[in-house]
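This section describes the prediction task in plain terms. A model, or a person checking by hand, is given the sequence of a single protein chain and must write out its three-dimensional structure as a string of tokens. No templates, partner chains or ligands are provided. The sample shown here is typical of the held-out split.
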Amino acid sequence: MDDVEEIIAQLVDDGILSPDGMEGEDFVYKIDLISMKEKYPALYEIFLEDMDETLLSLLKEGLVEVEYNENLEALFSVSEKGLALAKQLEDQVGDYNGWSYYSVWCC
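The expected answer:
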């Protein structure tokens, strides 16, 4: 078992990651951010910083849109431009069911 597999196994054991299916030959995991924040606060901060940078980059490129709900929580969704790019990539790399849904991120 390599280092990445050991880390993933530990995060699963700690209840931070839970299996959520397969994508090709790779496992897909759900992330329990509340547990991550409690058990691994440094990892949580790194994760949020990375997500912030990624979402801002996607927003600047016009690939996602942001709306705010009544609690002023940011809700991100894939823009028309993002869906068009996803469709183009899907045509190049094959079917990928995840392209067609709108994902929402908020903390």
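For orientation: The two ends are 33 Å apart (CA to CA).
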